[in-house]
Design goal:
single chain; alpha+beta; two-stranded antiparallel sheet; 14 helices; 10% strand
Length: 335
C-alpha cells in the first residue's frame, strides 16, 4: 500500500490559504471604523453652512454625526446622532422610489429620465438644454417632476402618501415636519417655481404647478436624525426590505435603477469624483446630510452642515469615504 507523506510546508500553505479566505470574509469592526472616521474629521472646519434657505443658516456648523446600519439591523454610531435636520434633497431618493413602485421603471425613465445633467442641481438652463428637460429624478427639475408623477386624488393625499413612505423607510417612526424650514423655503423658492413653470411648458409636469411645488417643499422639510436616516438608507442596502420591520418597500428589480440614479447624480457635480474615490451610490442634501449604500452589506448616513462648492457636506463626505475605503466596500473592489 502506497503511503502519502504530508509535508509541514503543505500544511502551512493550507492553513495560510484557509486563514486568508476567512480573513477576507470577516466583517470589519464597524464601530471602530465609525469612531476613527469621527475622530479624524471632527476638527475639520472647512465648508459653509447653506444660507440661501435662511432657516438652514441657523444650524450649528459644529454638528457632526455618523451612523452605519448593516443589512441585519446592527447600528454603529458616533457624534451628534440624535440631532435633527431637514432631509432637503435626500427626500428625492425616497419619493423617486415611490414613483418607481407606483408607475414602474419604463414610465419613470420616459417621463423623468436618468441622465447626468452636467449642470448644478437647481439649474434652469438644464431644463432648456436637456432633451428630456428633467435630467434625472435627483436634480430639482426631475425631483419636482417625480412629485407631480405620484398618483393621488389630490395634493393632500399625495403629501400623505409621500410622508407615509418616508416613515416606512424609517422603520415606522413618525418623522417630524419642520414648519419653520418649510415656511423659509416657501418664501424663497421662486427659482423652483420657475423650474416648475418651464417643466409645465414642455409637458414634463404631470400635476398642478402650485401643488407640485408645495408638496416638493414639504418633503424637503421633513426632519430626521442621523440614526433615522441610516435606517432609511439601510432599506436600499438590504435589497428594498427594511431591516427593522422586514417590510419589502421596493422590489429588487426597481432598486437597481434607483441605485443607478444615485450613482449617476446623487452627489451632483461631484458624482464622478465620488464614484472614482468611493465607488458607492450616494445622495446628499444641502442641510448637511449624506447617505451611501453598500448593497448587501450596510448603509452609512453622515451629518455635518458645512458644505463644499457642490453643495455636499465636507465632513459627511470625508467620513463616508474613509469608512467605505477601509471596509473595502466599493462596487469595484473585486477588480
Amino acid at each position: 500500500m502506497k503511503k502519502f507523506i504530508v509535508r509541514p510546508s503543505a500544511i502551512l500553505l493550507s492553513l495560510a490559504f484557509t486563514t486568508s479566505v476567512f480573513a477576507s470574509d470577516m466583517q470589519p469592526d464597524y464601530q471602530k471604523l465609525v469612531n476613527q472616521a469621527y475622530q479624524l474629521y471632527k476638527n475639520d472646519k472647512s465648508g459653509t453652512v447653506a444660507s440661501y434657505i435662511p432657516e438652514l443658516a441657523t444650524y450649528s456648523p459644529n454638528l457632526y454625526a455618523i451612523t452605519l446600519v448593516t443589512v441585519d439591523g446592527k447600528v454603529y454610531s458616533a457624534g451628534d446622532t440624535k440631532a435633527k435636520f431637514p432631509l432637503e434633497s435626500l427626500a428625492k431618493v425616497f419619493t423617486l422610489a415611490l414613483a418607481l413602485q407606483q408607475s414602474g421603471n419604463d414610465t419613470v425613465l420616459n417621463k423623468i429620465g436618468a441622465s447626468a445633467t452636467g449642470l448644478p442641481f437647481n439649474s434652469v438652463l438644464g431644463v432648456e438644454l436637456q432633451a428630456n428637460h428633467t435630467g434625472n429624478g435627483l436634480v430639482n427639475a426631475g425631483a419636482i417632476s417625480a412629485v407631480s408623477l405620484i398618483k393621488a386624488k389630490n395634493s393632500a393625499e399625495k403629501w400623505q402618501l409621500i410622508a407615509n413612505n418616508l416613515d416606512a423607510y424609517a422603520g415606522g417612526d413618525k418623522l417630524e415636519f419642520n414648519n419653520a424650514v418649510y415656511k423659509s423655503e416657501m418664501a424663497t423658492n421662486q427659482h423652483n417655481q420657475g423650474i416648475a413653470r418651464l417643466l409645465q411648458s414642455y409637458g414634463r409636469l404631470y400635476d398642478n404647478v402650485e401643488d407640485s411645488i408645495d408638496v416638493y417643499t414639504r418633503e424637503c422639510s421633513v426632519d430626521v436624525s442621523t440614526e433615522q436616516l441610516a435606517q432609511m438608507a439601510a432599506v436600499l442596502a438590504n435589497y428594498g426590505k427594511s431591516p427593522l420591520t422586514q417590510q419589502q418597500l421596493l422590489s429588487h428589480e426597481l432598486l437597481k435603477p434607483l441605485l443607478a440614479e444615485m450613482t449617476t447624480a446623487g452627489m451632483y457635480d461631484a458624482s464622478g469624483n465620488w464614484l472614482y474615490k468611493v465607488g458607492l451610490p450616494a445622495k446628499s442634501g444641502v442641510a448637511g446630510g449624506v447617505i451611501a449604500i453598500a448593497p448587501g452589506k450596510f448603509a452609512i448616513a453622515a451629518y455635518s452642515p458645512p458644505l463644499d462648492n457642490n453643495g455636499n457636506s465636507v465632513r459627511g463626505q470625508e467620513a463616508i469615504r474613509y469608512i467605505a475605503n477601509q471596509a473595502k466596500a466599493s462596487l469595484f473592489e473585486k477588480y
